[in-house]
Design a protein that fits this description.
This protein has 202 residues and is mainly α. The protein contains seven helices and no strands.
């Protein structure tokens, strides 16, 4: 009578080993993170440069980031075709977390824009970099937990610290410098690492 129980235990152990093996597969979407970090990082550094030179007018904020968004959406449309549609449960869960963060950023950005227009508070959008970095930190922390990648926890910590630093320098050009460098170091660079991991795993 012990045989059915033994078979069940073996099946459970086999399924568990398959699930655990998925942790060894790299997180997908590295190319998207690279594109987002590089494009918006460059946009933020452009704003910082214009502010530092005293040449930035209010309309230029919208022009710079609208141009960056158009470029990113074009890149995203192309890059999504190369993202695998299947994967381990951990890869899928991590992808869902990042997708949720992306949608949250989009909705928050639109909402802040509407509130800025309705209440005529031009500086309200200055909190956006803090919010973005906090959301990126949360996404990296989820990814680190699911994929058991210690270096991702370091990236998450860096994102949280950058959010705090951006809040401190919110009324200075330094904020845009920190935000731009943060996007390059905490989004673009890890995206490149993930792309290389995926290439080695292929």
């Amino acid at each position: 009578m012990a045989q059915p129980n033994q078979n069940l235990s073996d099946d459970i152990a086999f399924m568990r080993s398959l699930a655990e093996a998925g942790r060894d597969r790299p997180m997908v979407g590295g190319s998207i993170l690279l594109a987002a970090g590089a494009i918006y990082g460059a946009a933020s550094l452009t704003v910082w440069g214009l502010l530092a030179a005293g040449a930035l007018e209010n309309w230029m904020y919208a022009a710079v980031f609208l141009s960056a968004t158009v470029l990113y959406l074009a890149a995203l449309f192309w890059l999504l075709r190369g993202v695998p549609r299947d994967g381990s449960p951990y890869q899928v869960a991590t992808g869902v977390a990042w997708s949720a963060v992306g949608w949250a950023i989009f909705v928050i950005g639109i909402s802040l824009g509407v509130v800025t227009w309705r209440l005529q508070i031009p500086n309200l959008m200055s909190v956006f970099p803090c919010i973005l970095m906090a959301l990126y930190g949360a996404a990296w922390l989820v990814a680190a937990t699911l994929m058991r990648q210690a270096w991702m926890k370091g990236v998450a910590g860096g994102a949280f610290l950058t959010a705090g630093a951006a809040a401190w320098f919110v009324d200075q050009p330094m904020m845009w410098l920190l935000f731009g460098l943060g996007l390059l170091a905490l989004l673009a660079a890890p995206g490149l690492v993930l792309m290389r991991q995926a290439k080695r795993a292929a």
